Amino acid sequence: MKKAQRHPFAETLITWYADHARDLPWRRTNDPYVIWMSEIILQQTRIAQGLPYFYKLTEAFPSVYDLAAADETTLFRLWQGLGYYSRARNLHKTAKYVVDMLGGKFPDSYTELIKLPGVGPYTAAAIASFAFGEASPVVDGNVYRILARYFGIETDILHSSARKEFTALAQELIPSSDPARFNQAIMEFGSLQCSPAPDCGSCPLRTSCVAHRENRINQLPVKSKSKPQRIRQFQYFIIEQDGKVLVHQRQAKDIWQGLWEFFCVESSSIEEAINSHPFLSPLMAHAVALQAPAIHVLSHQKIISAAWLLQLPAEFSFKIPQDYQWILSSEFEQLGKPVLLLNLITDNIALKEILEG
DNA sequence: AATCCGGGGGT
DNA sequence: ACCCCAGGATT
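The joint structure predicted for all components is written out below.
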């Protein structure tokens, strides 16, 4: 009876999912806190990359109360290496809000969930369905790909109208009987079966898939090309004195906001960096060049960096630049740092010994 | 509507 | 080299 009302698309996906679902930790719970944590971690992040962070974070903060009470420095250190660090800030902000304003109880509907910092249309739909059984369709990269191919939709998935169109379609397809299972199934299907380079030969939907029938698998989904990456050059000065290192926390609306780093000048040359920061000039007598790091690639920037180690005698006196501070190397280890700096430290024994004892 | 925000893995 | 990843916030 009710099966006849389901679109065969949903029926096939759910059947496929019964045979192919991976055993993932966030699928073993209905706790909205744990599900929320997993969804924030997995935003634009592969499962294999996010999994260790999910274990670390849920162990460090078993409940929303633990997270709300946490020191943000600790959270950033745990988030180190995962990228998109505003997620960590919004995670903390939301935890405090849920504890302080909602008595520790998560909102239980899409409409309320999407009001939380760091929770957008995808994440709100995911939590609402997985934790509360609401029939809100998730629309992530997998869903765009599957629907575009299966129904032959040529809308540019980066166009602002795309989300509305694909969400409306997914809303028609999602069964009211077990919406959470459908959401899990469609994403798993996109990840394992209808991947960017799919195996159509084994696909249970191939006979009714427009893209397969018309041989347009490689043309769908339509996605406009992104701009070329911006190229930047950072000159790092690791200034050490009396067992302490000069550091600062990045604050500007720029990459790595909230992370810590050594004295940094954005400049195409060492000479220009020194000229623009005259206090450096007398310090350079003590400078030793460190191994030139490879180009650090972000999704939208390429960063070329160079670094100098400046170990200053105890009696050497100079005025430290604004917003910088001295920190013991043992404390520096406890701060969140960009992967570029982690690589720099790893690649230079001298630096490693200073910072790690 | 455009742009920005990381890092890593697959092809 | 290019693409994509359980996207969201800001301008």
